[in-house]
Design goal:
- The structure is a single chain.
- With 211 residues, the chain is an alpha+beta fold.
- It has four helices and 13 strands.
- Strand 1 and strand 2 form a beta hairpin.
- The two termini are 34 Å apart.
């Protein structure tokens, strides 16, 4: 079963010019409607039919389920500190590291929210099966989620990627943003902080957690 707002391992079942379709092959009753697209620009070059791949599921700007290899700063059921990009007619839009911003509806806001603010939010699935954010969260939810700044965010991403990221200070800002949702400057600061604490080691082609 494909679950929105979560990372899961799916199988590549069909290849098209514009990308590949993924499915949960353990679901024997699945149909083409139970498949999700991974856009061509995110498909690993060596991915073959029936290969597994770890992806995050959300909705694109056309409201279709879509897969991405990128890991956003927040998953459904978690809490994190996210930056407000802009306000719109239905709420504020938050930067969570993916192409489509995360909506924070006006009814889910506490106080006045402006562009540039950093707000602590919880990610949830609304009644229309869309991912949204809410500022109405409990202290227990904060402790259980990703209520973190950049150093802690990078550490969480490393743990989610088996302790290794193929990024370093020579990586392009675009690659860093794609994999971590961070600017290159924030990434370098976080790497330096984790290195000083002897949490990571810097390798030739990336960074890895120290055991």
């Amino acid at each position: 079963m494909i679950e929105i707002g979560k990372r899961q391992t799916l199988t590549m079942v069909r290849k098209m010019d514009f990308g590949v379709y993924l499915a949960d092959t353990s679901d024997l009753d699945r149909s083409k409607e139970d498949e999700v697209l991974l856009p061509r620009k995110e498909v690993p070059k060596d991915l073959m039919v029936m290969d597994p791949i770890d992806v995050f599921i959300y909705r694109d700007s056309s409201d279709r389920l879509i897969a991405t290899v990128r890991d956003p700063l927040i998953h459904v059921g978690e809490c994190a500190v996210l930056k407000v990009k802009e306000n719109g007619k239905i709420g504020a839009f938050l930067d969570w590291g993916l192409e489509k911003d995360l909506l924070l509806p006006y009814r889910e806001q506490k106080g006045v929210v402006n562009a540039g603010d950093e707000v602590c939010v919880r990610c949830y699935v609304d009644r229309s099966n869309r991912l949204s954010a809410s500022m109405w969260i409990t202290e227990d939810e904060k402790k259980a989620g990703r209520y973190e700044k950049n150093a802690d965010v990078l550490l969480t991403i490393l743990k989610n990627h088996m302790g290794y990221l193929s990024l370093n200070d020579k990586s392009s800002p675009e690659d860093i943003k794609k994999m971590t949702g961070m600017s290159k400057n924030d990434f370098k600061k976080s790497v330096g902080n984790l290195f000083k604490k002897r949490i990571i080691k810097i390798e030739e082609d990336g960074i890895s957690l120290l055991k």
